[in-house]
Amino acid sequence: MSKLGKVMKTNKFKWIISIVLIAILGLAVLGLVARMNRNETVKTVDNFSYSIGRLDDEDGKTLLKDGNKLDNTGIYTGNYIPYNNLVIELGDNAKVRYCVNFYDEDFQFLGVSSFVTADYSTDIIPVAIDADDIKYVRLEVVPTADKDGKVSLFEVTKYANMLTVRYSN
């Protein structure tokens, strides 16, 4: 039997290999945990999240004009956006104004801000709403310089690009 064969049969060699493998596995697990904790999930609302229409100031649902037609003078986010670390920034020379509709954890409408033409600040939360109750928002964006006063399918991306919306999960 070769020397290597004798070495491999010793208990000392088996223990050393086992310890090295366990250490490598432990370092790999620690690396994954550190990577997951370091990457807080920050998401950006994309242009495809917007639909043509407006939201009702009374219940936060899609506003119908004339009883059955959508009001096509603006765009809104169809999905509820988590309120965690909400950031709304208007681009340079943005020709839109927006308001924020606030909802609780059960997606019940709490209220709506007034329209603003500046980056988001908690100052726009209506006094009647307790900020701790806010869990979700939906945005309503209205152009301030649209030629015909109506948003077409081809203009949704144009107006959505005028602001950046980010949040954390």
Description:
By secondary structure, the protein is an alpha+beta fold. The chain is built from three helices and eleven strands; from the N terminus they run H-H-E-E-E-E-E-E-E-E-E-E-H-E. Strands 2, 5, 6, 8, 9 and 10 form a six-stranded antiparallel beta sheet that branches. Strands 1-11-7 form a three-stranded antiparallel beta sheet, with no helix packed on it. Strands 3-4 form a two-stranded antiparallel ribbon. 24% of the residues lie in helices and 27% in strands. The protein has helices at 3-9, 11-38, 156-160, and strands at 42-44, 50-52, 64-65, 69-70, 75-77, 81-82, 87-90, 96-103, 109-112, 136-143, 163-168. The N and C termini lie far apart (61 Å). The chain is elongated, with a radius of gyration of 27 Å. The chain folds into two domains: 3-38; 42-168, no CATH class.
| Helicity range | 10-25%
Strand content range: 25-35%
Radius of gyration: 27 Å
Order of helices and strands: HHEEEEEEEEEEHE
Please report the number of helical segments: 3
Poorly predicted runs are: none
Q: Structural class of the helices, strands and pairings?
A: alpha+beta
Q: What overall geometry do the principal axes of the alpha carbons give?
A: elongated
Q: What's the number of domains?
A: 2
Terminal CA distance: 61 Å
Number-wise, the strands total 11
| Sheet having the most strands | 6 strands, antiparallel
Average pLDDT value? 85
Entry keywords:
169 residues, alpha+beta, six-stranded antiparallel beta sheet, three-stranded antiparallel beta sheet, 24% helix, elongated
What's the SSE blueprint?
Layout lengths: L2 H7 L1 H28 L3 E3 L5 E3 L11 E2 L3 E2 L4 E3 L3 E2 L4 E4 L5 E8 L5 E4 L23 E8 L12 H5 L2 E6 L1
Antiparallel strand pairs: 1-11, 2-5, 3-4, 5-10, 6-10, 7-11, 8-9, 8-10
